[in-house]
Specification:
eight-stranded antiparallel beta barrel; alpha+beta
């Protein structure tokens, strides 16, 4: 696989190149680490600078809760990610720390209908898209049921309620009622048809980027490593456009798969790009179309419509069984 060579910095939708003229561009190969000799799986704490100050969860929520926001996602090789993050001004970054821990395990279970209404809406770019999932924070035994919707101007609106972590693989009667209310204006699909189709897992570090001369608005940055996908539905693995199915793919329900050496960086801010976006662009990394749910589904089943994620899957998501 050929390397993804860093490109000269050209801002996306504006941005101040002048403030970055003296910034060193890391000369690092952004080919996935697993495709190079000597690869070893990275954790976020080997990627995020250890000298960055810490911030508590209460402080983070107070300063940058941002349940309504614009997300920009990037896929980066682990070594390359470490080089880029090291270039950020140390006084403009604070890492979420809870009980001395800066890296946390996440588990998400996504729900869809047998004919994949939610997935297809993402794949074809329907105006009113939605995702239903449980999001569990394994280190603290907390779980939430979430409904994410996307509409005008690509803003993501997320609503959620506390949920029993023991029930994260299913929709309870209370959960179905909540989802039905959240989606009543978006889809005709019945909540009774929703079933778990895929589980995603990763380890995340969250960074707060305060407003500054280079950063136009308070924003967040997340770094996800140890990415895994587990198919939970035979119907999803056998899906075709006519609903007939052509037999299962090489992947198996219940088996955990991973993309070694791959890191997902996501910036969360208002419409203006954050300082992290500017540094990523300066290093030749551009936002990509990726959804852990939808791209994972498409990587696990090539029969699914997935033109918008084709390049991402080919370059980054050649999944293999997790060790």
């Amino acid at each position: 696989m050929s390397p993804q060579t860093p490109q000269p910095y050209t801002p996306f939708q504006g941005g101040d190149a002048q403030t970055l003229e003296s910034t060193h561009t890391p000369a690092v190969d952004n080919t996935p680490s697993s495709h190079r000799s000597g690869y070893r799986e990275e954790s976020t704490m080997s990627i995020v600078p250890t000298y960055w100050q810490s911030i508590s969860l209460d402080e983070l929520n107070e300063k940058a809760a941002m349940q309504t926001r614009v997300d920009r996602k990037y896929i980066v090789d682990a070594d390359y990610a470490a080089s880029i993050l090291a270039e950020l001004p140390a006084d403009e970054a604070a890492v979420l720390e809870i009980d001395g821990q800066r890296e946390f395990a996440y588990d998400s279970v996504y729900f869809d209908t047998p004919d994949l209404v939610s997935y297809k809406a993402s794949a074809i770019g329907s105006r009113n898209r939605f995702k239903v999932r449980t999001r569990s924070y394994l280190d603290s035994d907390l779980s939430f049921l979430e409904v994410k919707t996307e509409g005008a101007r690509e803003f993501t609106v997320k609503e959620r309620i506390p949920y029993s972590i023991e029930n994260r693989d299913m929709l309870t009667a209370e959960g179905k009622e909540y989802v039905a209310t959240a989606l009543e204006q978006l889809t005709d699909a019945s909540v009774d048809d929703l079933e778990p189709v895929i589980r995603t897992g990763y380890r995340r570090t969250t960074v707060y980027l305060p407003q500054s001369e280079q950063n136009p608005v308070d924003s967040r940055l997340t770094i996800d490593t140890s990415l895994t996908w587990t198919p939970l539905s035979e119907s999803a693995l056998m899906y075709t456009a006519d609903g007939g199915g052509e037999g299962p793919t090489k992947y198996q329900v219940g088996t955990e798969y991973t993309a070694p050496g791959t890191v997902i960086i996501e910036t969360k801010s208002g419409s203006a790009p954050s300082v992290a976006d500017k540094y990523l662009w300066r290093a030749g990394i551009r936002p990509v179309k990726i959804s852990k749910f939808a791209t994972g589904m498409a990587a696990l089943n090539p029969q699914l419509p997935a033109n918008k994620w084709k390049r991402t899957i080919q370059h980054w998501m050649q999944l293999e069984p997790a060790a």
